[in-house]
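Here is the promised in-class demo. Please do not try to memorize the tokens; focus on the logic of going from shape to residues.
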């Protein structure tokens, strides 16, 4: 028995080492574009396209100073503030409206609840470009074009069916005894939602907030449609303007601004990543 134990454990140990090595190799492959972006942001102008080396021959910190100047006389801090305002408003709107809609579908009883929920789920398959023109005509008639309203207001109307479905799946797993106890204590539907259900739904809400922040921050097409004035541009729009505004290929400052635009997403994700995993695990497996 004692001689057979090492022979059994040795293949298991080697398989574990091979698994770790494979995971490390996959991690390096996924992180290489990020490393290339960071290294390219510090390369001189003649090395960005001509050189295939990952590391620059000399660090060109002037790329960041040029990027911080912004575009069209708008500083990068103004652009960053615009992006944070739009993304923050979208996060608040989605978390509030989608949680209220999810509470109605998951915990309340009303007529046509099933067909309405199925219709809401069906809107996930509706392409964004199919409703873009009607939405633009509507916001144009309301005088909201070239403002932030078209980018934030729909989020307060529970238009993101994916997040409604995500929160519904999470709420269906919560015990109804909690609401019944709150109802005995005199709480109505709204007080039960805000005092009992909403705190317990925190993982799903943080998951909604993370995805909303990332998707809104990286959104280019919608912001390009509704925003015209340079002082209202976001970092995403400024990247395109930064290249067009220069008479020569300023790739170094462009990549430097890309790094600046990427930092808030990375910090936001690192701050709430454990809630993201918990929310997806608890929401996606409940039927």
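The designed amino acids, position by position:
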């Amino acid at each position: 028995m004692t001689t057979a134990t090492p022979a059994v454990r040795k293949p298991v140990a080697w398989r574990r080492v091979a698994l770790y090595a494979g995971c490390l190799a996959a991690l390096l492959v996924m992180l290489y574009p990020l490393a290339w972006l960071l290294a390219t942001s510090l390369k001189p102008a003649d090395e960005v396209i001509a050189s295939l080396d990952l590391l620059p021959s000399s660090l060109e910190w002037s790329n960041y100073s040029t990027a911080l100047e912004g575009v069209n006389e708008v500083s990068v801090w103004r652009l960053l503030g615009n992006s944070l305002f739009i993304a923050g408003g979208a996060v608040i709107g989605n978390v509030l409206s989608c949680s209220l809609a999810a509470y109605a579908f998951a915990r309340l009883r009303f007529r046509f609840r099933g067909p309405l929920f199925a219709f809401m789920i069906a809107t996930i398959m509706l392409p964004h470009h199919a409703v873009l023109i009607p939405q633009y005509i509507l916001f144009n008639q309301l005088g909201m074009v070239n403002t932030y309203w078209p980018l934030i207001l729909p989020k307060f109307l529970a238009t993101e069916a994916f997040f409604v479905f995500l929160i519904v799946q999470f709420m269906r797993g919560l015990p109804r005894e909690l609401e019944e106890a709150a109802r005995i204590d005199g709480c109505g539907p709204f007080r039960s939602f805000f005092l009992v259900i909403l705190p317990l739904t925190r993982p799903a809400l943080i998951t909604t907030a993370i995805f909303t922040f990332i998707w809104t921050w990286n959104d280019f097409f919608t912001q390009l449609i509704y925003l015209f004035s340079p002082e209202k541009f976001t970092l995403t729009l400024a990247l395109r303007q930064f290249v067009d505004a220069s008479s020569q290929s300023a790739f170094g400052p462009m990549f430097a601004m890309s790094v600046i635009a990427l930092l808030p997403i990375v910090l936001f994700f690192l701050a709430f990543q454990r809630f993201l995993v918990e929310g997806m695990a608890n929401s996606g497996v409940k039927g």
